[in-house]
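user: can you give me the structure for this one chain? tokens are fine.
assistant: on it. calling the predictor now.
[tool input]
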Amino acid sequence: MTKRAVLVSGSPAESSRSGRVLAAFGARLEARGFTLESYSVRSFGVEDLIYGRAESETVQRFLGSVQGANAVVLSSPVYKATYAGALKLMIDLIAPTALEGKALLAITTARLEPHLSQVDESFQRLYRFFRGSIGLSSLGLSDEQLGVDEAGSLILDSPARFALEQALERLTGALP
């Protein structure tokens, strides 16, 4: 049986560190046989997100993808020790019971490392809201652990690569 994961980027930037880490994580999931679907805040009409228009075609497709997934991976830059408001708007579209039995992992990037533990606490509270979900500890990386080469590809330092691999193991290990 093919495992499916939905990747959700809450970064408002077209190209961001959190988006690059999410893409690298997704590539590793694909290498393990996962089928991926990706969404970002830019996938939706602004009014659909702000007003929670569940009848929108894009929102319906997103909710169907989430419903059919084994895992949902959320990605966000950290602002003031919390995840992006754009990600919150996307999460608010998901019904409280829609993530039952699904593994949930958040990937965050922050300029200041102390913000990472605080945002993980926020995600843990969020996971508890989604009854029956399998909430995993976040993968949080500071900007000093990340780089971008001339081609725009992500560069991870050794501890960041190790943390990414551990998060991958946590996610795949949480699935039946």
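assistant: here you go. Strands lie at 3-9, 34-40, 71-79, 82-83, 103-110, 134-135, 139-142, 146-148, 154-156. The radius of gyration is 15 Å.
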